[in-house]
Design goal:
The complex is a heterodimer of chains A (115) and B (110). Chain A has 115 residues and is mainly β. Chain A starts with a strand and ends with a strand. In chain A, strand 4 and strand 5 form a beta hairpin. Chain A has no helices and eleven strands. Chain B is 0% helix and 56% strand. Classes of the chains: A mainly beta (115), B mainly beta (110).
């Protein structure tokens, strides 16, 4: 169990640029989640995958955001035309598909800073 | 939107003392989970309590759940400097999203 891996750990970009983050979940986990966390707040849910199917999206996920999990393994989160308000920590989590009461295992996140 | 509210928002105690954090939530839940987050890191799962359970223990951690009051508490006994972190409660409904509170920042003074 190598844990959830996220890349990059830090991303600094200019407003208006596109950015893409990658998440590699724990290998046997079918469920994958993306959250966003701003300073001093708890994480907020963005989207959820069961294998390759994206089953839920938050209204926080505007049309500038897109997430994929093409083969049911790793996932990418892309933000197009970044804005100042996109500055945050983007967290990925995964969990096993064994009923409702499974803990989520988090990566260390990608910290995005928009100049 | 954040469902849970933790209380207090910040707590500072001496090493060896007990720390108690409270969490309230608004809607029905399947389970309630507590997570720890060290500065600049991801969240680490501590304990999960199901809606039909009232109390659960794990090492120095004790969690209670009162579904009639929609509240939970996390007790850390015999605190250590390494317990310094932010603590979040999160409510779960089904297999999907967790809804987190704003967290309690715990500082353990040596």
């Amino acid at each position: 169990d190598t844990g959830v891996s996220q890349d990059p750990r830090h991303k600094i970009t200019k407003r208006g640029q596109n950015v893409t983050f990658r998440c590699d979940p724990i290998s046997e986990h079918n469920r994958l989640y993306w959250y966003r966390q701003t300073l001093g707040q708890g994480p907020e849910f963005l989207t959820y995958f069961q294998n390759e199917a994206q089953l839920e999206k938050s209204r926080l996920l505007s049309d500038r955001f897109s997430a994929e999990r093409p083969k049911g393994s790793f996932s990418t989160l892309e933000i197009q035309r970044t804005e100042q308000g996109d500055s945050a920590m983007y967290l990925c989590a995964s969990s096993a598909d064994r009923g409702w009461d499974q803990p989520q295992h988090f990566g260390d996140g990608t910290r995005l800073s928009i100049l | 939107s954040q469902q849970g509210e933790e209380d207090p928002q910040a707590l500072s105690i001496q090493e060896g003392e007990n720390a108690t954090m409270n969490c309230s939530y608004k809607t029905s839940i399947n389970n309630l989970q507590w997570y720890r987050q060290n500065s600049g890191r991801g969240l680490v799962h501590l304990i999960l309590i199901r809606s039909n359970e009232r109390e659960k223990h794990s090492g120095r951690l004790r969690v209670t759940l009162d579904t009639s009051k929609k509240s939970s508490s996390l007790l850390i006994t015999a605190s250590r400097a390494a317990d310094t972190a932010s603590y979040f409660c999160a409510t779960g409904r089904g297999a999907q999203k967790l809804v987190f509170g704003q967290g309690t920042r715990l500082t353990i003074n040596p």
